[in-house]
Amino acid sequence: MPAPLSRFAPGWRTLGLAVALPAALAVFSPATFAADVVVVTDSRHPVKTMGGERLIDLDEARRIEAELSAELPTDPGQATAIVKRRLSGGGPDLQRRIASAYQGVTDAWSLGITSIPAVVVDQRYVVYGEPDVARAVARIEQHRGTQP
């Protein structure tokens, strides 16, 4: 004769909670509501990221330029030769860093960012001045929930 279901139900409920709770938290976290999150900031405006967002650091291009021009001689010909060696010595990784840094500046400008830090969701909604990305996304999601 089969055992009554009630004898097994508590274990199954515990297992169900152990599986369902983390899944529900992941599904309803602010990061999953926003399809595309871009954060624009610089070194004077640190942000607390949540993971998965694109971070545009507007200082990155300046830092790379400083690396390339560090301790250059005053003679323009010598300085040019040193910078060319540094550029070629950096290889594809340096080229990607440079391209990414300037693309970030271009993207921030294209998004119409006027202040930092800025959290942009789906290239449509922006929160300025909030250093906690998860809170900014939550504010955007709250606003989106009130719109028809």
UniProtKB/TrEMBL annotation:
Per the record, a Pfam family?
A: DUF1525
User: What are the boundaries of the signal sequence?
Assistant: 1-34
Answer whether the UniProt record assigns the keyword Signal to this protein: yes
Task: Could you list this entry's UniProt keywords, alphabetically sorted.
Answer: Signal
Name of this protein? Integrating conjugative element protein, PFL_4709 family
